[in-house]
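Study this:
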Amino acid sequence: MSLSGKKILVVGGSSGMGLATALAAAAQGAELVLSSRSQARLDAAAARFGTPVSTIAADAADDDAVRALFARTGPLDHVVVTAAVVNRKPLAEITLEEAHQAFETKFWTQFNVARRAAPVIRPGGSITLFSGISSQRGFASLVVASAINGAVDALCRSLALALAPVRVNAVSPGFVDTKSHRDTAREKVLEAVAAGLPLGRVGQPEDLARAVLFLMESPYSTGSVVVVDGGHLAG
């Protein structure tokens, strides 16, 4: 199955794994629509494409904004949702309000985008969600994120049944250097993780983009959670 001529919406497409996915799909001839909360960031992202792309600023956590988003996009072939803000505070420091907000921005956003997207997806189309390997392996520093990612994995499998024949899959990343910010502490964490992985490096956004494209192009894949972690779970 080719992505040439397919219309793809990437929610969270202005940076990181979303932008990498959009660039990879555009290179295969897909028509891209990028969405995020910031029009300025969308404009900067759009400048990286060799062909015109559409951009729609929308808060994916707002149901009215999501409804309006799909009213503007019209029919789509694939929807990818990478938008998320995960709170990594230690358990003793995170407030209940912050934990609720983390669920709101990652789990409920993906839940709502998926259910609103389904009616506009053409036959053979798909929705791809993003979870994370903390759903399968415990991390003392990622208690809230682990719970959210586990919920997204379960959501993926259930939506594959509830929204059929629309295909629903999820990508579960390990540690990925999105280059969204650089600081000494983060660099040290990534270096330590890389040293313990079979491949000797952490992931790059492009690694995850390849997994998303595989799921979009695979007509027999639905309800699948694809782990892309450099062998982290194997250790």
Notes: The two ends are 34 Å apart (CA to CA).
